[in-house]
Amino acid sequence: AKMMKYLLFSSLGPEKFPTLKELTTSEICRVWAATSRYIRRQLLQKRAVEIGVGTFAVVPACATVGEDEVLPLERPVFKPCKFLKKFYKLKCAKTKIPDKTPRVPLDFEQIAADIHFRQEVVELCVHETLLFFAGTLRDEKEVEFSFK
């Protein structure tokens, strides 16, 4: 039910983003940089990370090297949750995260400690950014999210 709050029936006004309005762009970037680092650490430990609108994971893949040599490797993926895909009619590549992959939520306490922010600020910043992201999906605007 947590991700249901990202299924928007109408456009959002600026009053829905009080935390983003209070933070500077560089503070928002710091929160997301720390969030990215947390996600990366989990992926390196073969865990998937659920962030409300979908899941980051590492999936097995293959690369062809030279004529006929196939190298098994792993690639990071983001899989939007199925309700979100349906609701916004998103076209996404089919991705199967292996069932044995343990899933973890974002650890806001750890992310906040990493950058010496209050946990509540980090949590609200991430939530409002995802809400803003959902709003751009709803309004069919171009949006670019980059993770290091």
UniProtKB/TrEMBL annotation:
A single cellular component GO annotation: microtubule organizing center
Stretches assigned to the CCDC81 HU domain: 11-91, 104-148
Pfam family, one: HU-CCDC81_euk_1
Domain of life: Eukaryota
Entry-linked InterPro entries: CCD81, CCDC81_HU_dom_2, HU-CCDC81
Protein known as: CCD81 protein
Gene source species: Rissa tridactyla
